[in-house]
From TrEMBL:
Cofactor list: FAD
Protein name: NAD(P)/FAD-dependent oxidoreductase
Stored SUPFAM superfamilies: FAD/NAD(P)-binding domain, HI0933 insert domain-like
Domain RsdA/BaiN/AoA(So)-like insert: 189-347
InterPro entries in alphabetical order: BaiN-like (IPR004792), BaiN-like_dom_sf (IPR023166), FAD/NAD-bd_sf (IPR036188), RsdA/BaiN/AoA(So)-like_dom (IPR055178), RsdA/BaiN/AoA(So)_Rossmann (IPR057661)
Keyword annotations: FAD, Flavoprotein
Organism per entry: Proteiniclasticum aestuarii
Domain RsdA/BaiN/AoA(So)-like Rossmann fold-like: 2-400
Amino acid sequence: MNVLVIGGGPAGMMAAIKAAGKNHHVVLLERNEKLGKKLFITGKGRCNVTNSRDISDFFEFIPRNREFLYSALYTFTNEHLMSFLQAKGLPLKVERGNRVFPVSDKSYDVIEVLRKELYERKVDVRLHTRVVDVVLEGNTIRSLVTDKGTFTADWYIFAGGGSSYYGTGSDGSLHKLIEKAGHTITPLKPSLIPLVLREGFPKELQGLSLKNVRFTLKEGKKELFTEIGEMLFTHFGVSGPLVLSASAYYKGGDATGSIDFKPGLDLKELDSRLQRDFVKYQNKDYKNSLTDLLPSKLIPVIVELSGIDPDKKCNSITKEERMNLARLLKNFAVHINGTKSINEAIITRGGVKVTEIDPSTMKSKIVSNVSFAGEIIDVDAVTGGYNLQIAFSTGSLAGESL
């Protein structure tokens, strides 16, 4: 069978490898000048290929449509992926949060394993080839029109990514063609993206990186996300691993965030700590007494929001004032009113509607000779290697199921 794979990212490359392994003749179309352009920049160029947790634990890190991914993730697990890469000569290592990276810390090495496998399986890779139209015949695709001519195949696997990072080629244009073929595209929105705050103080805190803090996201009284980790203040709001994961649960509009600067201490323990510091600096002004407890950049903001006179001597601070300060440090409220643009998102939320795809094969229920793989589908996860595993797993299943 002649198979045409559209998209040379992790999902498309894995789909092409698996399809070629079933003795199909495979052509892979990639609009960029090289394969894996987005893969190259993942994990800050180090490529967090997967996560080493038990595959059954993956689903709690997938906010939406997790049931759709059962077949894909169990058919080609993280263990399968790691074994595949290591068997091809790529040693791996596990870091904090069970994140899996190549020992070399180079995403290029992951791409090179996949590229060599495509070559060995005689996949015809066509770079600089952008799909611009789809030619339909009833409920089948007859051919694809590209800027390099028309391609015809028996089967088409769409793995062209989402709408984030336009420069890597995933600009959402393929979704329009899939919609033309009869599929529903759920709204494309940014996920794993910095959050924009209503408050003005982020400008004062710009560049401040915090470790081992708890960030909680709420919509009204409903808690959407809470976790301990690292975050970063920017000139417009908040970012960093903790916030990016929280953004996967953000539904848009107004929401509230809460930062617990001392999650290792309960309110009573934090109050005891403040008492010790205030005794230590009893003759100092309050504004100069928090240097042992907080980063220097954060102190002026906390002092102002605490409502305690900055020039008040520590030995004059009342119990009520001290408790209010402790509560502020345990529940530092921020008001979220949006995200950065989808072009700055690590991944896209939305895509081909999952109810229109057979989860056991990745085949379309609407177009008789089409499969889907990767971010083009309405599936996404938090940070930590889960999204790349989804790409590899859905790509593997799409290629294997032909």
